[in-house]
């Protein structure tokens, strides 16, 4: 049963109730019959005697419902329906074609043009009321869906604005993080240290670095903070201050002696100091793995601590390789944990590679991880003439060639290579 005119207020129209109706028919008598019924039921009715006139009305104020004759001179009902749908705005109008046609292919043609329903002429009053009620239900669902879609669209727009703001901040954060590694390669006498840092996102949780408090004394490291993203990156910024290559008074790996010069602390002591600092900071759940080395450039004597980091790889000049260390416990995970120190002697021409598990845990095309055997294969593929930064670039490029295209770079990739060439 259709409601009377008192039921058709603005709020109900927004909810899908039909309030305005456009009757399109070249027959004045047919229009008069339809308009009389519609007004009796409480609708606001507008008339048009042709498809062209109807389009003009719809362009000004689209109705909730259109009742249009199919057969009209000039633009017929089918053409009017198709053109109306092409130019309709965000709102939706229910379209009923009035026709004497009953063939299935003709009805299909009308539906294809955009008609929602059909009424056979002469129009039965009760059937018309029932079809309008059905159209009202459909309009209500359509407008509710449109409202929800609008809310979703507005929400997505807001999320995009938030994402753009975060993305802008992350780009700036990446620049700040890159400033923690001001030099990717540096000479120390005839020897050198080179660094590689490839975050899997804008920012990452890996950190590499080097510092030297004086001639023939050198420290370098590779760090991997647990987790990914902003939290890990904030931790690397903090660690960059703890191991500063510029401000030695802030560097926990150095101590001032005789108030005159800085000396390098033993690697096991450095790991213990960093562990104590992280454990003392309440609320911080992050920890990190680390390989930290100091070397005497006169003798090639190497001292190293491994705290849960992948085993450093010693590449001898004669082509032999050796993984150093016994694993160790990550820094910031267990209080008062003792760290052991590893010692080795490097000969001129030897190289020491520190690397993050972004290498060894990289996913291959078959789904397996690279592992240490795969790392050795990547190193074997590197140009034998390349050293320092070129060697690291070769190594990373070789990794990208075997890495799974489906998974891509799932973790930060970083490395430090020390090349010893004698005193």
UniProtKB/TrEMBL annotation:
Top-level taxonomic group: Bacteria
UniProt keywords, alphabetically: Hydrolase, Phosphoprotein
4-aspartylphosphate PTM positions: 69
Annotated InterPro entries: Bact_Sigma-Reg, CheY-like_superfamily, PPM-type-like_dom_sf, PPM-type_phosphatase-like_dom, Sig_transdc_resp-reg_receiver
Domain (Response regulatory): residue spans on this chain: 20-136
The UniProt record lists the keyword Hydrolase: yes
GO BP terms in the entry: phosphorelay signal transduction system
Matches recorded under Pfam families: Response_reg, SpoIIE
Record-level Gene Ontology MF annotations: phosphatase activity
Key word Hydrolase present: yes
Species per Swiss-Prot/TrEMBL record: Parasedimentitalea marina
Protein name as catalogued: Fused response regulator/phosphatase
């Amino acid at each position: 049963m259709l409601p009377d005119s008192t039921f058709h207020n603005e709020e109900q129209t927004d909810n899908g109730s039909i309030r305005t109706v456009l009757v399109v028919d070249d027959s004045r008598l047919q229009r008069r019959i339809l308009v009389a019924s519609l007004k009796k039921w409480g609708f606001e009715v507008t008339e048009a005697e042709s498809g062209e006139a109807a389009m003009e009305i719809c362009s000004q104020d689209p109705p909730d419902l259109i009742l249009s004759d199919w057969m009209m001179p000039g633009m017929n009902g089918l053409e009017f329906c198709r053109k109306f749908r092409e130019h309709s705005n965000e709102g939706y109008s229910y379209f009923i074609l009035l026709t004497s046609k009953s063939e299935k292919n003709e009805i299909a043609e009308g539906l294809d043009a955009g008609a929602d329903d059909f009424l056979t002429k002469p129009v039965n009053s009760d059937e018309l009321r029932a079809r309008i009620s059905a159209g009202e239900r459909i309009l209500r669902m359509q407008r509710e869906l449109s409202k929800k879609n609008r809310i979703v669209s507005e929400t997505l727009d807001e999320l995009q604005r938030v994402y753009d703001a975060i993305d802008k901040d992350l780009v700036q954060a990446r620049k700040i993080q890159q400033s923690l590694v001001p030099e990717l390669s540096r000479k120390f006498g005839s020897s050198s240290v080179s660094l590689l840092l490839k975050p899997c996102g804008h920012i990452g949780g890996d950190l590499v670095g080097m510092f030297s408090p004086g001639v023939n004394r050198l420290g370098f490291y590779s760090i991997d903070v647990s987790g990914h993203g902003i939290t890990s990156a904030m931790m690397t910024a903090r660690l960059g201050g703890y191991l500063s290559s510029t401000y030695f008074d802030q560097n926990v790996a150095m101590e001032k002696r005789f108030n005159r010069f800085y000396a390098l602390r033993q690697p096991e002591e450095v790991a213990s100091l960093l562990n104590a600092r992280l454990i003392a900071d309440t609320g911080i759940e992050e920890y990190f793995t680390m390989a930290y080395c100091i070397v005497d450039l006169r003798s090639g004597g190497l001292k190293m601590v491994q705290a849960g980091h992948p085993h450093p790889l010693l590449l001898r000049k004669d082509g032999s390789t050796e993984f150093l260390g016994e694993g160790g416990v990550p820094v910031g995970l267990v209080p008062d944990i003792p760290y052991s120190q590893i010692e080795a002697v490097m000969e001129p021409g030897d190289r020491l590679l520190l690397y993050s598990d972004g290498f060894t845990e990289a996913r291959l095309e078959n789904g397996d991880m690279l592992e240490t055997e795969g790392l050795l294969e990547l190193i074997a593929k590197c140009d034998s003439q390349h050293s320092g930064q070129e060697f690291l670039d070769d190594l990373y490029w070789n990794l990208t060639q075997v890495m799974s295209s489906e998974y891509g770079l799932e973790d930060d990739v970083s490395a430090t290579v020390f090349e010893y060439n004698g005193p």
